[in-house]
């Protein structure tokens, strides 16, 4: 006979409600029984590690759900950090009214190659529309650096180490003296401590042609008004 058989309908309903309220406690007693001396967990080692892992995960999920634990949402912590870029500024020599004039232009780095490339580029897009360049019809190709030997070392540079920079260009025709001065003085302006002289070679089209080895001092007559050229 049902335990509720002798009760009235109202009494049976009340008994069922009381039993329902005891549900969480019963669930906890069931979990406690898992680890008891005769519980399920005590018998699991013999069942193998895979079964043990599955049961343990199930128990953790049940306990977490009973404790009201809910996963956290991803929170927006603001915009990611931004790395700011500050270019290096160098001096290149462009032309105004047939004379050399310095102009400040940005470069990615102050390597000799970047400086020479920037000089050629600045001639096509000058920072001042009144500035021009004798290098507009020529292109940068390469740079090569060689060290001065003891026999070649100038008397004014005894005891120092210096280099000769060979700037290799391409283009039709012959580069003017003003164009040679632009390259030489730009290199010397930014690399005075290490580059003692600048040699210029036109590679192609046609046969390679050396345009000589120069220092900026020999172009002092090409300096614009108030412009002081490097040595």
Largest sheet: 4 strands, mixed
**Tally of individual helices:** 6
Beta-strand percentage range: 15-25%
How many strand units? 6
- Share of helical residues: 25-40%
When the domains are counted, the total is: 2
What is the H-and-E element order?
HHHHEEHEEHEE
Briefly note the structural class of the backbone.
alpha+beta
- Major sheet: order of its strands? 3-4-5-6
Average residue pLDDT: 77
End-to-end separation in angstroms reads 118 Å
| Broad shape | elongated
Low-confidence segments: 1-6
Q: In angstroms, what is the radius of gyration?
A: 43 Å
Keywords: Membrane, Transmembrane, Transmembrane helix
Transmembrane segments: 46-69
Organism: Planomonospora corallina
Protein name: GerMN domain-containing protein
What does this structure look like?
This protein has helices spanning 9-21, 23-35, 40-43, 49-66, 112-124, 177-190, and strands at 88-96, 99-107, 139-147, 163-170, 195-202, 209-214. It folds into 2 domains: 9-66; 90-222, no CATH class. The relative contact order is 0.10. The protein is elongated and about 120 Å long. The protein contains 6 helices and 6 strands, in the order ααααββαββαββ. With 231 residues, the protein is of the alpha+beta class. It has a 4-stranded mixed β-sheet, with helices on one face. Helix 5 crosses helix 6. The chain crosses the membrane at residues 46-69. This is GerMN domain-containing protein. Keywords: Membrane, Transmembrane, Transmembrane helix.
């Amino acid at each position: 006979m049902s335990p509720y058989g002798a009760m009235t309908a109202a009494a049976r309903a009340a008994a069922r409600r009381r039993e329902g309220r005891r549900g969480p406690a019963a669930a906890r007693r069931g979990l406690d029984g898992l680890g008891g001396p005769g519980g399920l967990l005590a018998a699991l080692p013999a069942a193998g590690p895979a079964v043990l892992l599955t049961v343990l995960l199930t128990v953790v999920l049940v306990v977490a759900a009973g404790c009201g634990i809910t996963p956290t949402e991803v929170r927006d912590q603001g915009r990611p950090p931004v790395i700011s870029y500050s270019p290096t500024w160098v001096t290149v020599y462009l032309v105004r009214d047939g004379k050399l004039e310095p102009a400040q232009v940005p470069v990615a780095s102050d390597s000799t190659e970047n400086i020479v490339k920037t000089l050629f580029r600045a001639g096509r897009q000058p920072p001042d529309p009144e500035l021009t360049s004798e290098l507009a019809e020529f292109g940068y190709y390469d740079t090569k650096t060689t060290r001065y030997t003891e026999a070649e070392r100038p008397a004014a540079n005894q005891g120092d180490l210096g280099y000769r920079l060979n700037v290799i260009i391409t283009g039709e025709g012959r580069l003017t003296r003003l164009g040679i001065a632009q390259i030489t003085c730009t290199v010397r302006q930014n690399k005075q401590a290490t580059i003692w002289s600048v040699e210029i070679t036109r590679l192609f089209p046609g046969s390679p042609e050396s345009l000589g080895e120069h220092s900026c001092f020999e172009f002092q007559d090409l300096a614009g008004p108030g412009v002081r050229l490097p040595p």
